[in-house]
Amino acid sequence: MNPGDPLAELRDIHLPNSVSAWPLAPGWWVLIIVACAGLAALLVLWSRRHRARLYRRQALLQLQQIEHSSEQQIAALIELLKQTVNSAYPEQHYSSLSINEFFAFLRHSCPGAIFANLPDNLDNLLYAKDSELDPLITEQLTESATIWIRQHLPSHKLNYKPPC
Fold it and tell me: At what angle do helices 135-151 and 54-68 cross, to 10 degrees?
């Protein structure tokens, strides 16, 4: 070694240890907690909405059964609509309205164009034999019922006062 050589006293360069991914910084913990809370809230909201729409799914299944039956379709259809109204609006008792007022309520509670051009003697059609009914009326009522079950307004958005 040369005593006058200052470079001889230098040591090799040592790299620092690599940065570890664990333990996480506090900011990451906060982000993980917020993300988990958000996912839990979304799951709870989805679950509530799914349970709240159960009556709609059941009504649509019953409507399919009514379509495939051959007896008293109109009476069964109106009975299904009244049961669905009772489930959708349990506090208002709209199902106890007269048949014409009931269909006026159904038209008002759905944004779609439904139950238009119904015959005036709808009360008599309830008790008529299926052979006396026009199949177009039954088809129109079924299509309108399907639309109403899928699209009717929730009770907090409904502003309907039945006629006195």
Answer: 170
